[in-house]
Design brief:
Elements: E1 10-14, E2 17-23, E3 30-31, H1 33-46, E4 50-55, E5 58-59, H2 61-68, E6 72-76, H3 77-85, E7 106-109
Parallel strand pairs: 2-4, 3-5, 4-6
Antiparallel strand pairs: 1-2, 1-7
Helix pairs in contact: 1-2
Length: 110
């Protein structure tokens, strides 16, 4: 989504609510706070209700701490695989202040 400064890869829409998704490169082991800050700025720019940062790796402590103060949910590693399969991983979920899952949506790729 170039209108969001390139910080979002997808915009998900449901009932007029917009959610942004940013996918981080799979070769990085840990995703830092800059990716989360970039998506946070994009949420504000397009007035989205929430967002998701997806990666096959993990997130740094700084990224997790920053995300707790936003409407962004971090989904990585085992949790990403389980989420894509439609289930949560067996380990306890970390509580977040993220937006609710958008459910059935129409995805537009920018």
């Amino acid at each position: 989504m170039r209108a969001a400064g390139g910080a979002a890869d997808l915009a998900l829409l449901k009932s007029g609510e917009r959610f942004l998704v940013h996918c981080q490169h799979w070769r990085k082991q840990e995703i830092g706070v800059l990716a989360v800050r970039g998506l946070s700025s994009a949420l504000q720019a397009v007035r989205a209700q929430g967002g998701y940062v997806l990666t096959a790796g993990e997130f740094t402590r700084e990224a997790r701490e920053f995300a707790r103060s936003t409407r962004i949910e971090l989904i990585g590693g085992e949790r990403l695989i389980a989420w894509l399969r439609g289930a949560e991983p067996k380990r306890a979920r970390q509580p977040t202040r993220a937006a609710k899952k958008p459910g059935s949506v129409v995805a537009r790729i920018a």
